[in-house]
Design brief:
Length: 88
């Protein structure tokens, strides 16, 4: 029952954001996480993140590509390629 309610909540939130949500045009300068700091979920993927100034939502940031990471699979694939190149 909880998973159904969670799914419904997610769908409603997504629809609300599509209709009335923030477009995240203004963000902070990319930040890296320091020792002892809270590690935001967005920073777990890349180690860096940006925050929307208007709504406060956090986004993973890829410093090498100089862009917000929108697709986790795309980032993981790119990161694996870079690590393979470094190890060869």
């Amino acid at each position: 029952m909880r998973t159904i309610l969670a799914a419904i909540h997610t769908i409603i939130t997504m629809l609300y954001d599509l209709l009335f949500g923030c477009v995240h045009r203004k963000t902070t300068f990319p930040r890296s996480v320091r020792r002892g700091e809270r590690r935001p979920r967005a920073a777990q993927l890349t180690g860096m993140y940006v925050v929307c100034v208007k709504c406060g939502k956090e986004f993973a940031y890829d410093w090498d590509e100089m862009r917000v990471v929108t697709n986790e699979e795309e980032f993981v694939h790119a990161r694996e390629a870079v690590e393979a190149e470094l190890h060869s």
